[in-house]
Amino acid sequence: MRKRLKGNFMKLAYTMAPGRGDTDLVLQEVAETLMKRGLRVVGTVQINTERETDGPCDMDVKVLPDGPVVRISQSLGRESRGCRLDPAALETAVGEVQARLGQGADVLIINKFGKHEAEGRGFREAIAFAVEREIPVIVGINGLNKDAFLEFCGGVADEIAASGPAINDWVKETIGSTITV
């Protein structure tokens, strides 16, 4: 069910897959499908690369539609348990997305509303910019930051199943039936 904001439908949705990295894969598939259909897709998709040594995977984000790819994780060593996010690298990706968003977009995809966004930084301004201009926004979230995301959007975002067809249907409904997704 679509939620309304001031008499209009809110063009903001979130998705969350249960497995580690599954949301990233779904959003990457959706971005590729939408771009093949001729839509101007702006935002980020996350690419995780497993490492043989020195701890968990490397995390990169590809700035849509055509890069750059920005490494947003720091290598803190195998025994490290702290947050591996490189805040400066994430803000580099944010700046790239905001520049592209200012040039026009049909859809904004943000790989994750994470800890950085929950604390008031990151992609929050890009999301707000797109919502104000009625550009459909799809955001990946995880259980840790779901409450912060719902607070940020006032609880008016649509929850979509973490599947390419479900998200593509939402985009088609949100943009209008004149497109083929």
Oligomerization status of the protein chains = single chain
Report the structural category. alpha/beta
Beta strand %: 15-25%
Q: What Rg, in angstroms, do the CA atoms define? A: 16 Å
Number of helices: 6
Low-pLDDT regions: 1-8
Tertiary shape:
globular
Helical content class: 25-40%
* Helix and strand element order: EEEHEEEHEHHEHEH
Spatial ordering of strands, largest sheet: 6-5-4-7-8-3-9
- What kind of sheet is the major sheet? 7 strands, mixed
Average residue pLDDT: 86
Give the strand tally. 9
Query: In whole angstroms, how far apart are the ends?
Result: 19 Å
Characterization of the model:
This protein is an alpha/beta fold and 181 residues long. The chain is 35% helix and 21% strand. The strands form two sheets. The protein has a seven-stranded mixed beta sheet with strand order 6-5-4-7-8-3-9, with helices on both faces. A two-stranded antiparallel sheet has the order 1-2. A hairpin with an 8-residue loop joins strand 4 and strand 5. Helix 2 runs parallel beside helix 4. The chain is globular, with a radius of gyration of 16 Å. The model is unreliable at 1-8 (pLDDT under 50).
